[in-house]
Amino acid sequence: MPLSVTELVTRLKFAVEGQVGEQRVIGEIGSCKPAASGHIYFTLKDRTAQLQCVLYRYQAAMCRVRLRDGMQVELSGRATVWEGRGSLQFIVNSVKEAGLGSLQQQFEELKRRLEAEGLFSPARKKPLPSFPLSVGLITSPTGAVIQDMRHRLESRAPWMQAYLLPVQVQGKGAELGLAEAIRRWNTPTLYGLPEVDYLIIARGGGSMEDLWCFNEEVLARAIASSKLPVVSAVGHETDFTIADFVADLRAPTPTAAIELTTPDAAVLRRQLERTTATLHHSLSRALQTARLRLRMVQQGTLGNPLMALAPFAQKLDEQENALQTAACAKTGRAAARLEVLAAGISPRALLPRLAAARGSLAALEQRLRSAAGSRLNTRRAMLQVQAARLDAASPQRALERGFALIHTTNGRLARSTADLPPGSRVNLQLADGTRAAIVEEK
What we know:
Number of domains: 4
Helix content: 40-55%
Largest sheet: 5 strands, mixed, barrel
Strand content: 15-25%
Distance between the termini: 109 Å
Strand order of the largest sheet: 1-2-3-5-4
CATH topology of the largest domain: Rossmann fold
Order of helices and strands: HEEEHEEHEHEHEHEHEHHHHHEEE
Structural class: alpha/beta
Radius of gyration: 52 Å
Number of helices: 12
CATH superfamily of the largest domain: Hypothetical protein af1403, domain 2
């Protein structure tokens, strides 16, 4: 009897889940499409096959890896068959980037080899110009990086000329374009490029794979061979590439590259203002000296310096007299104030105040003694009343009135007839002593 489509697909699903089930698989992501529901659908492929995969929303929320096309990943999940299409599907539970270990190993190996050759040595790094007039930018013509660098350059050093040589900054073969751009700008006339003072290689942040073209040997050797100083401004502050180590200067970000290599117009303006003020002052002094010499020549006193200095000596005497007068006046005022203060603290002035204070102290002492005595008498009377009440409630007083306390042989106080069975021995405590007794049945 033939099977229905549902029955066949169900059998296939059970077979796949039973015989394959939970697995780990490595491959390259393709056709990655996040859905509005939060699920992520993609294919996992290698050279000869591909597999439909789904990462559900609740798993995607916990996934720390941002999935993208071309990414090498290792997936953990479960193989099944989706009944809706009758297609094989891999339901992903976790994602881990694959290939990073080999990339990091390649990075470290190339770094060691180039460092051994001396390409990272500070001795071979070229100094950057202190006051550049032009810069060559090697980066992508689109995106935020070029715009941010342009705006920062306009606000910081508006006199500079910036020229862009657009290149690819990500993907296979990008390192060849970057290296060629450096070579062309070292011989600008052959390629119709303007001459510049230095170069900046720039790119925004990204993963290790995105920045890998800046870790290629061909680019490192092009930077090392450049006659122009090269600044590497790749990624964010925490990103390091081989280009950073070979470059003459490493900037943490593209905009930082502009700040590190250009003078600040605001600072230069303040320095110019200070220099202008200094020159103006020096020129004024020189003019005053020239006028004085001219006056001396006109008055015929150039040959007699004492005559030339006479007016200045007279003015100095006047200022000295004025200073002495002001000092004497100030000293007199201070002395008068000191006399007033001294009179206020003389023994004759202090005796009445001291006598009054002594009288106040005696009155306070008398009040304190009176209050303490009154409170003590009150407390003593209260204590006597409490002692009388306590004495009246004493068991001894009850015994003196004819009552007795009955204790059993084990020393316990008898409180009911149940504690005194017939024939038991007891001790009677009276006001003036104790007596033994035997309980008899009434």
